[in-house]
Amino acid sequence: MTTTPSPAPVPVEVLVHSVPAEWWQVLAALGPLAVLVSAAIAAVIGINTLKQKSVADNRAEWWKRAQWALDAVHSGNKKQAAVGLKVLRVLGESELAGAGELAVLEAAWQGHGAHAPAPPNVLAPGAADGDLRAVWIAAAQLRLVTDQRLNKQTPEWVRTLAADDP
Known about the structure:
Blueprint: H1 23-29, H2 31-73, H3 78-93, H4 99-110, H5 120-123, H6 130-149, H7 156-162
């Protein structure tokens, strides 16, 4: 059997006519990118929300401690007042204490005499009752903190008294 050779393939001409894509085709092609951008935005918003909640929670705890300390300061008991003023000093050093909070702390030390020079029976160690001296020293230490944080001048007698141990 003899075979006749098949004719060589003939190239076929193909004409491609391109038309601009429809708007919905472009939009569909950008879908995955839109999902990625949306996810990134949602992640940033979520992280910021968590940070804000954390700061709000910390500020609420700061105020609970401040309320306890203010109650102790105004308890009428000199030992409790000294402890309350010491706690307020620590709270005043916190970055959670803004200008409004520091104004509250200023009112606490002003109520315990650190706005006027201490009487001689408080300044000299052993010259006053120890509990009263401890209150004055704690109030002076609190004033030192609030003055530093609010960029105010602290009188020298307050610095001297704040440096003492009750």
